[in-house]
Amino acid sequence: MISIKNLHANVEDKQILKGLNLEIGPGEVHAIMGPNGAGKSTLGNVLSGRDGYEVTEGSVVLNGKDILEMEPEERAREGLFLAFQYPVEIPGVSNLEFLKASVDAVRAHQGKDALDSVQFLKLAREKCKAVNLDASFLKRGVNEGFSGGEKKRNELMQMMLLEPELCILDETDSGLDIDALQVVAEGVNAMRDPKRSFIVVTHYQRLLDYIVPDYVHVLANGRIVKSGGKELALELEEKGYGWLENSDNGAA
Amino acid sequence: MAEQFQTQQLALANSVAQLPLLTTLNAQGREAFAEAAMPTRKTEAWKYTSLTALLANEYGAPAVAGSNEQLTAAATINGLDAARLVFVNGQLSNELSDALALQQVTLFSQANDGQQALISEKLNSVLTQAQGSEHLFNDLNNANVNEGVLIHVGKNERLQQPLQISYLTTQNANPFAVTARILLVMETGADATVVEHYGSDEHAQVNFTNALTEILVGDNARLQHYRLNLMQEESLHIGSTHIDLGRDSQYNAFHLALGSRITRSDLVVNHNKGGSHCEISGVYIPQNQQLVDFHTCIEHKVAHCTSNEVFRGIMNDKAKAVFNGRIHIHPQAQKTLAELSNKNLLLTNSAEINTKPELEIYADDVKCAHGATVAQLDEKGLFYLRSRGISKREAEVIMSFGFINELLEALPDEAITNLLRPILAQRFGREQDLALHLLENEAAGIAGENA
Predict the structure, then answer these.
(1) B406 vs A75, A92, A100: nearest CB
(2) Average pLDDT estimate for B417-429
(3) Are residues B313 and B408 in the same domain?
(4) What do you get for the CA distance between the two ends of chain B, in Å?
(5) Domain residues for B406?
């Protein structure tokens, strides 16, 4: 599915990722945990092609294609999806218009027919319901005035509409209360599929009670310093990250 | 060139048939215009606004023009159940107009005795309140005016329909000038929606519209005013709106200049009595070589008034815009609350904006907030859209549209929003596929309440 090798990346000339290796197979859920400043969010931004994140070394191959030279929109069309930690508000652009533009672009790339407006509206309303957002959110500005939980559910709705192959959830649990967390987790679990993989970036073990990962990795100082099964998350919850920060004992 | 323009415009003023009602005003206007100096780059209020394109032609009186399909379409605002007065090249089009059936609406030339008395009393009375915000093109309007629209909404009267006044232009053998004049008098407790609209068909034409609107909003009266400049790219438009606000009155307005070769638009609001409020939003979107210049001035002359002004502009290609937002708080105008925001987007390196908030505050117990920004499109928003598969160019179109659409969505009359949205979408997404998503829901009839 995706193969990340020896990834080095800079932000404003500061090296953040320092040789990150990660192999993710189809259908797998990988959790990435780690202390503040370890490079967790940088990983999501680098993979999705954000300006200002400069890859200096290494490779990222998604389904056999090198994506590092691709524009962000090309990566999205190839099946990569980043659920933002802080979804952006775009006043004046309706959620529905935005979603239609997005789904049309991805479908066109996949050689699928465009949905007409009425079909799309029906589909969008279904997905709204699935993430427990009122359909009135479709005609509001993109994320405009949404609460933290509503923004995250809007991210999830986009993910459901686009049906990506690789979903990167960047601290999707931040700012969510327990109820919202459960709704989001249920949505993610409903999307688990033998062909779809997830990278779940989080600070807290709590999310992983709901979205149970196949693998847990600890990212510290720009590289993966420990990998294990879901029980590793519990161990981290108990011991913190301190005991791992200086170790250098393994990449996934 | 400037002197020629002046001489020639004065000759034109002398040649038009005068209304006896207006002879005094015409004479005053001619005198003032003859004495006025044409603005140069050193004239502060015209510093960034070159009139070269205006001065390049001689403008005569237009021949009577018939209507055509494009003009009929231009005069139609779908979904707005308006009473209309439509002028084509300055002449009333009976075919397109029905508002003269209303007792509140008349032309200067058709005014009865009572209406004539009102015109004599009020015409030019708001303009003369301006303290330095008036200019020689207002004098020229006074010199030339030989017809106009009087709207008189009586005490506690409410205009049941919006009133639409359209000044349209079409082709003419020679370059021509149109003098547009509106006097709107709202008595105590009156309520109305007035759409003042300037447009043209697509035929090649060279014209100069000089428009002057004076508005008196009486005590407790409320006006919703739209001033829409949708003229074609080569048009020349210099217009002023002067407003007199009574006690606890409200002036709510939306001013749009899509852009023409030159658009200069002055807006002067006089808070003459306590408790009055004005709420003004505005948009300018020049492209190619167009120039739009908005000069607004809020005169807070008395205590306990509030004003809120929000203008946004997007400049594309080599277009240029000027926004000068003056707030003048007089010494006695305590407890004033005045806000002004002007945000601008430049889409190219050769586009230009000159924005200047100009605050003069002589009272000490007031709140006055202002902000002016010039920026490119928000990188975060662009990346967000692109990360969802939307191309960079379409993302730019969507973001530009949203920046303006935010103000359109806030308009109280949905018909105006619906009129303008497609025009704006096409302006940003010049290739059809780029504007597609902004319009398809409307095309499918699932915009607004149905969505």
Answers:
(1) A92
(2) 89
(3) no
(4) 56
(5) 393-451
